[in-house]
Amino acid sequence: MSTNQMANDPIFNKEVEIQRLSWFDALFTTIKNDLEYNTVGSTHKAQHLADLGQYLAQDLQHYSEGELTALQAEQGADNE
């Protein structure tokens, strides 16, 4: 399957979405644990993980916007 075909495959897209959401789950669970159980008083790791979470959220948003644009273009082509 080509990259273009994978990008247009709704099952593949949902699998990617689920994988990325599992990353968010792991990331935010780790941040929560770092803040809750940190006995040293440093939130250095939590800050770096929060930065990573922000990056991943922006990446997922960009990916989803591209997917939406492609679906809208496809729907527009189908209506012509």
Explain the layout of strands and helices.
Elements: H1 3-7, H2 10-37, H3 44-79
Helix pairs in contact: 2-3
What characteristics describe this protein?
80 residues, mainly alpha
User: Order of helices and strands, N to C?
Assistant: HHH
- Please tell me what the overall shape is: elongated
Low-confidence stretches: none
What's the main sheet like? none
- Intertermini distance: 28 Å
How large is the radius of gyration?
18 Å
Number of helices: 3
Tell me roughly what share of residues is in helical segments: over 70%
SS elements, strand count? 0
Q: Mean of the pLDDT scores?
A: 81
Structural class: mainly alpha
Strand content: under 5%
Question: What's this entry about, in short?
Answer:
The protein has 80 residues and is mainly α. It contains 3 helices and no strands.
Please describe what this structure looks like:
This protein is mainly alpha-helical and about 80 residues long. It has 3 helices and no strands. Helix 2 packs antiparallel against helix 3.
